[in-house]
Design brief:
The chain is α+β, with helices and mostly antiparallel strands. It has helices spanning 12-20, 32-37, 73-78, 80-85, 87-94, 99-104, 107-112, 118-121, 163-169, 187-190, 271-277, 284-291, 306-323; strands spanning 5-8, 24-26, 45-48, 57-59, 65-68, 173-178, 181-186, 209-215, 223-229, 240-249, 252-261, 268-269. The strands form 3 sheets. The chain has a 5-stranded antiparallel β-sheet. Strands 9-10-11-12 form a 4-stranded antiparallel β-sheet, sandwiched between helices. A 3-stranded parallel β-sheet has the order 1-3-2, with helices on one face.
Length: 326
């Protein structure tokens, strides 16, 4: 680990000042400290924001939900408002990590975490995300766990967050505070596809601070859930996952929100699946047909072609669990 300076921000104004000067924000530290230990990240200054008042979970007057950036993952998963309104979020958090990590890691830190690609974390390997212009070792290396959607010739790493998949499905928004004031970014635009600049992963400007993640109000009743497929049941990252939320009224699907994880360079929204569902009556045949559209645009690599079929089965299974059959 390389030497660094440390400062603890007593309020938001102090945090923004330190961030504007180049400091890196840290709260739970479960990802950044690991990367520093592996010398992948080498920040000159850490700005501890764990004391800032960003820990509330509030139901909006419209019926949506606001989750403070410093809410611990365990707190959000167990919160009655989250469990009642959006069980897909609770379940994604519960499947994200060990209990110890969930007690430390924050919601804001979770969506900011960097990829678990082994080549990114191996400082001797070529990685455009870590060292732009060096190449991508995963393209022709062992790429079983890598992405099949949203990839480029510069990067095929998956985004590791589970709850980010739920946020993507629910079309959440990220609120940011920075030197130029407050702004709001749709979750679909917050995490960036690699393109030719894989080193730029989030739409966060220098010195900006995540304050809240807001889930919009959705029609009721809303049934939702999260399914994670992995190599082992104990703590492991997803091979594929599916976040599904359905509003069914009068026996007809009126609203559908679906996203996939473990397969994309960012949490992957599935609009083609959603469009196939809306206006239809739940049935086994519908779930199968809709899930077939989950892999549109997929570009599998040598070792992860199995993810094409696995993603379809994952989406189909979770649609059936959430929507039922007749």
């Amino acid at each position: 680990m390389h030497p660094f300076a440390y400062t603890r921000a007593s309020d938001t104004r102090e945090a923004l000042k330190a961030g504007r000067a180049g400091g890196r924000y840290i709260a739970g530290g479960t990802t950044l400290v690991d990367l520093m230990r592996e010398t992948v990240e080498r920040p000159g200054t850490l700005v501890d924001i764990s004391g800032l008042p960003l820990r509330d979970i509030l139901v909006t007057k419209e019926g949506g939900l606001r989750i403070g950036a410093l809410v611990r993952m365990a707190e959000a998963a167990a919160h009655p408002a989250v469990r009642a309104a959006y069980p897909v979020v609770s379940r994604a958090l519960e499947l994200s990590a060990s209990a110890q990590l969930r007690n430390m890691a924050t919601i804001g830190g979770n969506i900011m975490q960097r990829t678990r690609c082994t080549y990114f974390r191996d400082v001797t390997a070529d990685c455009n995300k870590r060292e732009p212009g060096s190449g991508c070792a995963a393209l022709h290396g062992v790429n079983r766990s890598h992405a099949i959607l949203g990839t480029s010739d510069h990067c095929v790493a998956t985004h590791p967050s589970d709850v980010a998949v739920a946020f993507a499905a629910l079309e959440a928004r990220v609120r940011l505070l920075g030197p130029d004031g407050e702004r709001e970014v749709p979750f679909a635009d917050f995490l960036l596809r690699p393109g030719s600049t894989p080193q730029r992963e989030q739409a966060v400007r220098q010195g900006e601070l995540i304050t809240t993640i807001e889930i919009p109000a959705l029609p009721r009743p809303l049934k939702s859930g999260y399914l994670k497929v992995r190599d082992r049941q104990s703590y492991e990252f997803a091979l594929t996952s599916a976040a599904v939320a359905l509003h069914i009224r009068g026996g007809v699907i009126r609203e559908a929100k679906v996203a996939a994880g473990g397969v994309g360079t960012v949490p992957w929204k599935l609009p083609a699946v959603e469009r196939h569902l809306i206006g239809e009556r739940p049935s086994d045949a519908l779930w199968t047909a809709a899930a077939e559209k989950a892999t549109e645009g997929a570009r599998p690599l040598r070792h992860n072609r199995f993810k094409v079929a696995l993603l379809k089965r994952t989406v189909e299974r979770q649609l059936r669990v959430v929507g039922g059959t007749k």
